[in-house]
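User: tokens in, sequence out, please.
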């Protein structure tokens, strides 16, 4: 990622789950998801249960962070990170020129 570049959009619904036997394949070279779909489904179900129990949902990605869609209830709601940086930079300039 290049500095100041927006993160690529992502969609967790299109993510592909992978399955590895780390005891035999610690480099994760042999994806076993197609060979053992029942094990993958079992682990996905376990992940979902644990995610709900531990309040992991909704999943967030860097687009959510960049667009301030999380923990954003104050006066800055709706402003992007770029807007906030400009705002801080602008107010910083006026303080330094007024001194």
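Assistant: Sequence out:
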């Amino acid at each position: 990622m290049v500095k100041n570049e927006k993160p690529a959009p992502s969609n967790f619904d299109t993510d592909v789950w992978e399955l590895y036997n780390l005891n035999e394949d610690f480099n994760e070279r042999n994806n076993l998801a197609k060979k053992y779909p029942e094990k993958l489904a079992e682990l996905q179900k376990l992940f979902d249960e644990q995610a709900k129990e531990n309040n992991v949902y909704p999943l967030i990605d860097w687009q959510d962070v960049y667009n301030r869609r999380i923990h954003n209830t104050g006066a800055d709601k709706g402003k992007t990170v770029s807007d906030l940086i400009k705002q801080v930079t602008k107010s910083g300039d006026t303080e330094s020129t007024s001194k």
